[in-house]
Amino acid sequence: MSHRSTLLLSLFLGIVVFGLATAGFYRTVVDLSTPYPEDVPLYERAGSAALGDTVHVGVISRYPPSVIYSGYQPLLDYLTESTGRYFALRLSGSYEETVRQLVDGRVAVAFLGAYLYLKAHAEHGILSVVQPLNDDGTPGFRSALITSQHSEITSISDLAGRRLALPPELSFSAVWLLMQVLPSAELDVASVGSARYLPHHHAVVYEVLRGHADAGVVKDRVAREFLGRGVRVVATSDPIPGGPLVVPAEHDPELVEAITRALLAIDPAKPEFASRTARWDPEFAHGFVVARDSDYDGLRAMLGLLPS
């Protein structure tokens, strides 16, 4: 084979490898069009058939499926070991679908966002069980207004005429942008160039990094993930209670007690948890605290949802 032919073959193979890698990255991290098949277990566990009935756990579509599975399933594995019941994720295509799964009995428990919990509690009697702790031992999170590290946007008033990327409509971050961020600068949706809802928080970051959006809002946990990787934080919300693990009004008290006991026992300072929690979603790596409905009254007041 001539030197020229060898070069052409190498170039062709390089293009093919790059294309496959790019496609794989897109499917794994970005694309949401194909849900993870529920009849294919993510992990095979020896002796799992001897465990109790499967407890399906719902989770809102706040992250890409691959991110949810890699961060949430290890926590469910811990619950399986701790309770003797087999815990499995059941994803959904939207925030609303997770609530429907709870109401219809397709999932026994679910992870909701804080704002969605307020609506689900008011409309369906959904009950909070626990919420995650931060690294300082307190519950709660913030939303972050982000932009590219090279952007000229340095304040909220700079959002006038800009393209904004938002997570799903029922996320607190989207509500915060529309109800607090823009009004604080005497802006509204009509004042910005565009405001577009996206499937999940990571999609907001991707649109900002690609230059398809000038700014966006995400959970602080997602913003921290991309600091130093092209993202800059312009503003953050006041802290609000974390998104709770919830159960429907009609639930199994023994199951809830077992889950609560196992999650409250998590202590990353102990050697048996230190290495284990490192593989969990960062939101869960510091343990949990009991979540009472009254914990969310401050958020209700912030959003004008307290009874008159």
Structure summary:
With 308 residues, the chain is α/β, with parallel strands linked by helices. The protein is built from ten helices and eleven strands.
Total individual domains? 2
Structural class assignment: alpha/beta
Low-pLDDT segments, ≥5 res: 15-50
Distance N terminus to C terminus?
Answer: 83 Å
Q: What is the highest CATH level, the class of the largest domain? A: Alpha Beta
Question: In order across it, which strands form the biggest sheet?
Answer: 2-1-3-10-4-11
What's the order of the H and E elements?
HEHEHEHEEEHEHEHEEHHEH
Task: Please outline the helices and strands.
Blueprint: H1 3-30, E1 52-59, H2 65-83, E2 85-91, H3 95-104, E3 109-111, H4 114-124, E4 127-132, E5 143-148, E6 163-166, H5 172-184, E7 194-197, H6 201-210, E8 215-219, H7 220-226, E9 231-236, E10 245-247, H8 253-264, H9 271-277, E11 288-290, H10 297-302
